[in-house]
What does this fold into?
Amino acid sequence: MLLLSEIWIYPVKSLGGISLSQARLTDRGLEHDRRWLLVDENGMFLSQREHAVLALFQPEMRTSGMVITYRKTGSFIEVPLCYTKDQALFTVTVWEDAIEAFEVDAAISAWFSAILGFSARLVYMPDDSHRKVDTDYAISSSDVTSFSDAYPFLIIGQSSLDDLNNRLKSPINMSRFRPNFVFTGGEPYEEDTWREFNIGTLLFYGVKPCGRCVMTTIDQERGVIAGKEPLKTLAKYRMKGNNVLFGQNLIGPTIGLVAVGDVLSIKKRV
It folds into this structure.
């Protein structure tokens, strides 16, 4: 039996993740997942790929708002979850995509800038800002995503990580791969073959195996590059073209709840 074992959101792209027992789906991914983003003075997104220290910022959802703590010093700041509609929009860039967003608060941006030692602005993607997924992989013309790299969801099987760890000298945690969903049961890497499947009663589509980058080499607890693994080992047996593959990108429904313990049922494979 395939069971959903973990649910994760990453409210601010490239910052720490939050483990949930259940989550609500929106039109662009799990609620709050990558709706915030740090950008530089030119509006270009900031990532752990260049700034591993971002892993040390840990968000926490509270009823009053989102609290982000810099784990190295314990300094923290509160970020609101609700905004008025009169915010001044400007264009930010994630990869090749130009996206309308607004700065949350100049004081919050100043807090990040002071810790990082360079200019950083915290921005938010409002509901009326729509970023299309790659049309080559979209299920419908209305498919959108948040500030994620490309797609609303990422799923990885625990068996896939177990198989990888059996090949590594030192095992690594699933946090290196930043999935939204983790499941138990099944064969290693079988998620690569899923075209249509349910988590509970909700239908998802597997659209593209996930190409991995240097971010997987960053120790999420220490906020530093930990070496060449797991990319070095994955490249020996998970290479396709120029991409090292691990995990499956998904497009899913716009409403509903998923919860740890939900059964996964496969409807169609590629």
The radius of gyration is 18 Å.
